[in-house]
TrEMBL record:
SUPFAM superfamilies: 4Fe-4S ferredoxins. This is 4Fe-4S dicluster protein. PANTHER family: IRON-SULFUR CLUSTER PROTEIN (PTHR42895:SF1), IRON-SULFUR CLUSTER-BINDING PROTEIN-RELATED (PTHR42895). PROSITE patterns: 4FE4S_FER_2 (PS51379). InterPro entries: 4Fe4S_Fe-S-bd, Corrinoid_activation_enz. It comes from the Bacteria. It comes from Lachnotalea glycerini. Pfam families: Fer4_7 (PF12838). Residues 4-33, 34-63 form the 4Fe-4S ferredoxin-type domain.
Length: 247
């Protein structure tokens, strides 16, 4: 049948995975770092994935496509839930390059440690955390510590990958953390409310190099746009072996 269905332009896709998270029917999957429409009959043609795409890679088209199969989608969701419950705690790649297992070799570890000790005069292992809670899903929209704050919004894994995270990022910042791949829903609404309702001086985003972490960056950018405030912001990308790739 001829019907409306989504179209994904691979060359525009940055691999953030936001569309796959927004597609509750499971029609989109991340394959080799790119979003793919994997089942025509899973796509309802409503386009929930369109507004979350930061690059405009997704549009509508009318073409020959299998009819939307609600029963197949329900069965898929049921099977997916069962697999998650049965495999709780296990590592799944799911075609996402950000989940690919890898061993990390830290070269010149002793030399790096010496350089860190020489370049920092503060006490080792000192916590710089200024507030609690830190999870985006749990933090209140209004809190006294948000007033005149420098906001750090970080992906969970960054603090594990980057050795000096407290001193180089958390220090003098109000810290919010989350994982766009694991948490349900989008962060942009909550972050918009925080930025709108408080006097935020600056926003720093710290994300991992993996594609799925693009969802964190996208949520912050969307929140800044929605807030209608001109706030200095910065994105820092951390490699899986703990190096700063760009800022």
């Amino acid at each position: 049948m001829i019907r409306q269905i989504i179209k994904i332009e691979e060359e525009k896709c940055n691999g953030c995975g936001a569309c796959a998270s927004a597609c509750h029917e499971g029609a989109i999957a991340m394959i080799d770092g790119k979003a793919k429409l994997i089942r025509d009959d899973y796509c309802d043609g409503l386009g929930n994935c369109l507004p979350v795409c930061p690059t405009g890679a997704i549009t509508f088209e009318e073409r020959e496509a299998a009819e939307y199969d609600e029963e197949a989608v329900e069965q898929y969701q049921k099977n997916k839930k069962q697999m998650q419950e049965q495999s709780s705690g296990a590592c799944h790649t799911g075609g996402c390059p950000g989940s690919a297992a890898r061993a990390l070799k830290q070269e010149n570890a002793e030399k790096i440690e010496e350089e860190i000790q020489e370049s920092h005069t503060y006490a080792a292992k000192k916590s710089e955390l200024m507030q609690w809670p830190v999870q985006i899903k749990l933090v209140p929209v209004n809190a006294p510590y948000f007033d005149n704050a420098n906001l750090l919004i970080a992906a969970d894994c960054t603090a594990y990958a980057y050795a000096n995270f407290h001193q180089d990022f958390i220090k003098n910042h109000i810290t919010l953390v989350g994982c766009p791949k694991l948490d349900e829903g989008d962060y942009s609404e909550k972050l918009t409310a925080i930025i709108k309702n408080n006097h935020i001086k600056s926003v720093k985003v710290v994300r991992m190099e993996v594609p799925c972490c693009g969802g964190m960056e996208h949520a912050v950018i969307q929140a800044l746009k929605n807030s209608n405030k001109m706030i200095p912001w910065q994105v820092v990308t951390i490699s899986c072996d703990g190096k700063i790739l760009d800022n």
